[in-house]
Write a structure and sequence with these properties.
Largest sheet: 7 strands, mixed
Radius of gyration: 22 Å
Distance between the termini: 42 Å
Strand content: 15-25%
Number of strands: 16
Bound molecules: pyridoxal-5'-phosphate
Oligomer: single chain
Length: about 425
Amino acid sequence: MKNKNSLWYPYIQMKTMSLPLKVSSAKGVHLHLEDGTKLIDAISSWWCVIHGYNHTEINKAAKQQLAKMAHVMLGGLTHEPAEQLSNKLVKITPPGLNHVFFSDSGSVGVDVALKMSMQYWQNLNKPKKNKFLALRQAYHGDTIGAMSVGDPVEGMHKLFSGLLPKNYFLPAPKGGFNALAKTVNADLVKLETFLANHHPKLAGFILEPILQAAGGFNIYSPLYLKGARKLCDKYNVLLIFDEVATGFGRTGKLFAAEHAQVTPDIMILGKGLTAGYLGMAATLTTSKIFTSFLDDSPVKAFMHGPTFMGNPLACAIALKSIEIFEKQNYLEKISCIETQLKSGLSQISHPQIKDIRVIGATGVIEVKDKAILSSAQEFARQNGVWLRPFDNYLYTMPPYIISNNKLTKIIDTIQTFFKNKKII
Ligand SMILES: *Cc1c(COP(=O)(O)O)cnc(C)c1O
């Protein structure tokens, strides 16, 4: 008994949890369970396994690096994989992001961004600018700093809202990707009013560009990002894009910022960065921010350095992942996934469905009452598909290597699930 219950699982009431499925191996888009069944992973292990599992070329790159060294510290030492990866990230991200700080997970990458922003203003002798503006429906991670910019009312961390550093929130932008100009303008008016009143205490405005992921899959207009860029410049507030979920193609562009052709002051990458092989994040910033840390005295230096920062194995894997993404024209694959998701999911109907949205390799069905989804995971499993709905959302974010047929199987499974649900 004692040993059986030692593992504490994430985001779950351990008392009532049903037994998790035991995976013995995985290959391509498939999870191979211990009992011999095979499931198509429709959600890429929390969206990060972008090339599928057990990828021959990435395995090879990892083995090559492993034969040299798995890890060395980045304090006082450096190595080829970290140098190459930072240069590569600067090359592929929006122009102006010239400096890369590595850490070990998306949440920590967000915390690094918040700390960097606060210190930037300290370095400029404006220490009162130390609060953040964020959006409702935002999810930025599970550490204290990241929780403090997540939706404080409906988010999964609402229990902590009185205990965390106090930040500010505006409603999530409305109207979808193709929102009418007047809808976007109404949201930008709210933003401007807020910034005009509060900018002396604001260090930055953090948001997930285009797609707010774990906080409710809200998709919004690139015009909002363009407007936010202008207003942040006008009121001297840093603009921070959390691209942990959206980066590496998930919304149809390599980075979601490209939809708006906007360069944020700080951008965070994670999840797909290492194709699901190892935990890693990167916080990128502009020379404007970086140079504020330069001084003859050490007090302005950035006092941060996770033990596993710039882990060589993770860097080598990320470099290979990006190389494959570029060489094999993944944006084209993602565009095909988008087309198929749009035509497939739009045919699903049920009175409980509130909205169906698709962007890039992300398809979401929002229902009115989440009770209807309680059996979705088990139904999908019986049909050979791994889905994991949460709250009112049943979604798919498949690996980009998924074939037409396998994606059809995911869509059919979702369709049949709703077809079988009695209309109440
Ligand atoms: C997943 C996620 C994070 C947190 O990343 P972890 O690696 O789980 O710490 C932060 N921001 C966004 C937008 C995410 O989707």
